[in-house]
Amino acid sequence: MLNSATSGARRRATMLAVALLAALAVAGCGGSGETPEAAPSPSATADANPFTVRDPWVKAADKGMTAAFGTLVNSGDSDLTIVSVSTSVSPMEIHEMAMKDGKMVMQPKTGGLIVKAGGTHVLEPGGDHLMMMELSKPVRAGDELTFTLTFADGKTAEFTAVAKPFTGAEESYDPDSGMPMSPAPGMTMSPAP
User: Fold this and answer.
1) In sequence order, which residues have a C-beta less than 8 Å from that of residue 137 and are 6 or more positions away?
2) Which of 12, 108, 113, 177 has most Cβ atoms within 10 angstroms of its Cβ?
């Protein structure tokens, strides 16, 4: 009987200690007048970095090559030049579409991508894009990929893009596919939702 009484007293003491600690924790969160150091809010981060990527996406692909798209936004007061891009899924290059010998061809963009001060630069199928070469694994619809852009001044910016199925322009980033490398007139340039 003594053991049962002792055990009950210990349980009550433990519950009382837990309740006391909980009350102290709640009181500690109250208004002591001091503000704990907080992580920057998304808007503070955006103010500190004038560069963002709006509506980024990647064309889903099982193998070979694919590309990343979106709108590059420079809210700063000086031009930004992107000289390289990287991701863990493949080596990358900055590409453009250009007329060569009467045909539209895809080629590396000399000098990088310039995003004018206070302006935007659209990356889209049939235009400038971030080319993913030799995929190390399939990029399936719904996958999220992180990209790192490197600027001419050595600074970097990361963004995450979601892979989406896209057949709108019937373009191909595989030069051996025999498909056109640019969109047909009047075709949509948006990925499937």
Assistant:
1) 89
2) 113
Q: pLDDT at position 137, please?
A: 97
- Domain interval for residue 81: 50-164
**Beta carbons of 179 and 125 less than 8 angstroms apart:** no
pTM score: 0.65
Q: How many domains does the chain have?
A: 1
Each residue's pLDDT tens digit, 10-55: 445 444 443 433 333 333 333 333 333 333 333 333 346 799 999 9
CATH of the domain at 126: 2.60.40.1890
